Amino acid sequence: MTFFTNARIPTMQGNDTVIADILVVNGKIAAIGKNLEGGENCQTFDLQKMLVLPGGIDPHVHFNTPGFEDRETFEAGSAFAASGGITTVIDMPCTSLPPVTNVANLENKLSTIKDRSYIDYALWGGVSGNCLEEPNWRENMQALWNVGVVGFKTYSLSGMPTFMHLSPEELAEVVKYAGKFGILIGHHAEAAEIVLPLTEKLVAEGRNDPAAYALSRSTEAETTAIQRIGVLARQSGTPIHIVHVSSGSGAEMIAGFKSQGADVTGETGPHYLAFSIEDFIAQGSVLKTAPPVKTKADFARLWQALATGELTFVASDHAPCPLAQKQTGSIWSDYGGIPGAGTLLPFLYSEGFRTGKLTLAQLVALTSTNAARRFGLFPQKGILQVGGDADLVCIDELQNTIIHGADFPSQGKLTPFEDWQFQGKIQSVFLRGNLIYNAVNGLAATRQGQFIKRN
Ligand SMILES: [Zn+2]
Fold first, then answer.
1. Domains of the chain by range and CATH?
2. What's the sign of the alpha-carbon dihedral 256, 293, 325, 315?
């Protein structure tokens, strides 16, 4: 048993908090309230009225084990996430080798990850262009869904030969099939028919600069792909989740489909809320992502979309790489992706809540509750209530955090947030009642992360 006293927890009304004690038995919250008593053999933590939130959920990471481990591993990625207050990630299928497109590959991934994660993990399945070449792709989806993946990642534009994108016709077939069983489809929305010819033209003109890359992946590319899958969602009833929405128009389009009764949600990421094309031009490939960051007006609109609920949560799209892969000499071949799992919650706490763009209740919803609900992890995850996992993040609101990529436990050390100062500091993090990180001693000696199935 573990007993937490003097936790200042959100009431989920605006910015209100209340001081409470939390009793944990077998990793679950057994009681929460005022003046509780811990038992004789209880390990007790006095949280000293620090702000305590439900552990963060990062529903979009690429930890690459088993797979492209020169870029990131589950140990390093989950260590970074834990240090940033994340207690559950949902790992993507597409940067694993073999990709998680059937149950055998899922089991291979689960046995490889076992004992290598500091935090709990759910998994995405996937359907790629490669899959559709196999006659039994439908059975593979069905079987993976039954094992408990949260959904299936698809791309309208992918640069990965091991996980190719779907043509509009293939996407329609997959969405239609998924709809029959209520299977959720996650979608990377950038229309290949817009991006690829434009890229070819810009390369032929000798362009090799961030502005050219940004030009090749326009807002129109994003909205065209969202429009296409939104119509499919409306027709089929399939739950669709748009990953890393980068434009205000993209968020508005998602809200539009929602208002028409389609089951469409969207996430954005910290980089889309912090940076514009001007920053990308200044930073170069350190800030190269797909889709690329858009304008200042877009990032203002994305903040608004989080506050209004047009977008449902924030994810990091954590996808680092070694320095050399960011310095190939060409903006086109430099790796697209940044480490972000450990800066997600500190960023949103500081730049969202502390600046007044979000209430405390919204911060909790956007970093934990809403993702848990959308992906079937709720109420085991995403909320501090009796019966849920005792995943807690304690934030010292009087201290600040200065970001230095070199200090990240991630293998990725290059961050567009280098030298940023966030208000607040992650003081300690508990997974199922066990301390997994604190600011003084760092990470726990043992890794206790477990696979969490969609319920
Ligand atoms: Zn991704």
1. 1-86+313-445 (2.30.40.10), 124-311 (3.20.20.140)
2. negative
